[in-house]
Amino acid sequence: MNKLDTWVNIPEDSDFTIYNLPFGIFSTENSSPRVGVAIGDKILDLADLAEKEIIAVHPSILKQETLNEFIGLGKHITKNVRLDVQNLLVQKDSPLKDLPDLFIPLDKAQMHLPVHIGDYTDFYSSIEHATNVGKMFRDPENALLPNWRHIPVGYHGRASSIVVSGTSIKRPKGQVLPKDASSPVFKASGRLDFELEMGFITGKNTNLGESVSTSEADDYIFGLVLFNDWSARDIQKWEYVPLGPFLGKSFGSSISPWIVTLEALEPFKVAGPNQDPEVLPYLKYKGEKNYDITLEVALVPKDGEEQTVSTSNYKYMYWNMAQQLAHHTVNGCNINVGDVMASGTISGKDETSYGSMLEISWGGTKPVTLKDGSKRTFIEDYDTVVMRGFAEKDGIRVGFGEVKGQILPNN
């Protein structure tokens, strides 16, 4: 990638560099929700930019409460908008230099859910995570179920309970089967967990009966976000047989507010792991489809100090986004602009890179000691979980900011 010099002052180690320019929805005390682009510690107001006819998009599209209409214009428009903004932030005689009011400090803005999410699918695509769970709950010698290496396993989740970063989550209640008991009890979850995930946002509609091939997938993926799929492990364990996750998952998931485009992530493509046995023809793909994105999870106890509990990477994924989308649509299932498809928990090859407390504490048998001396096997009331992610190569950084949420008691 060519090095770019911008006249905007960007703090060192900022996720929102001139190479990134992610899209989001923000509001201020003086403005309603609208489309913005993050640059350094500022937000560039695209709606005002359009009002001044500096970019060629109708202002009404950029004054929406979600990005759906903008994304639905198609990549031939959205890619050009991003490149036009990039050029404006690089040009020495840029008209934006005389328009400082278009740049809103991030700490003066409220971020909103970036898209209206009609549907949400959660995959289970990390072989390390699936193996760890299989070892704990099934058979250490045959941890993976027979279908796992043949299909990107997934389930349809609850779109209505996806919330933007910073939104608190109440501890869920449900049926739990106590150890050595024969009947369930109703109680608040005692094994509340996070799941370190990434999600992709679909950018095109399909009709019922149509499918998307792996070679077409990039055209249908607008960009990526950080995703925390909160999980109540004790509720999940009791309910998931025979039909899978339900109340143990549907109480809440957290999404980061900035969507990083596929175009910004292009330099960070890498080869995925070898897939054995060979996949069926519709799941085969060409080129590099994984992304080298460093991920980390921090835990912050109430009035306590932040502590990193996991460092992982999106490149570990066994099933990539192109395969996930191809499998999702191969039966003719239609997709819509703004659908969210999450990766499933992203775990690496050793315990420092596990993407859930279930794995980090190995089912509650290995407590994590925090800086204040307290111990955690799962998430306690008033704990805050913070996830961050960034890609970096040859001095170029593209990041996602963070997704965080605090767990509140449910009395």
Task: Explain the overall architecture.
The chain has 411 residues and is of the alpha+beta class. The protein has helices at 46-51, 59-62, 68-71, 75-88, 127-137, 217-220, 233-239, 247-250, 262-265, 321-329, 357-360, and strands spanning 23-28, 31-39, 42-45, 103-105, 110-111, 120-123, 154-156, 162-164, 169-170, 173-176, 185-188, 192-193, 196-202, 221-228, 231-232, 253-255, 260-261, 269-270, 290-291, 294-300, 307-313, 340-342, 368-369, 375-376, 384-393, 396-408. It has 2 domains: 23-111, Fumarylacetoacetase, N-terminal domain (SH3 type barrels, Roll), CATH 2.30.30.230; 120-408, Fumarylacetoacetate hydrolase, domain 2. Strands 6, 7, 8, 13, 14, 16, 17 and 22 form an 8-stranded mixed β-sheet that branches. A 5-stranded antiparallel β-sheet has the order 4-3-2-1-5. Strands 9-26-25-20-21 form a 5-stranded mixed β-sheet, with no helix packed on it. Strand 20 and strand 21 (307-313) form a beta hairpin. The protein is globular.
CATH superfamily of the largest domain: Fumarylacetoacetase-like, C-terminal domain
Strand residue percentage: 25-35%
- Provide the number of structural domains: 2
Whole-number average pLDDT?
97
Broad CATH class of the largest domain: Alpha Beta
- Spatial separation of the terminal alpha carbons: 53 Å
Tell the overall outline. Answer: globular
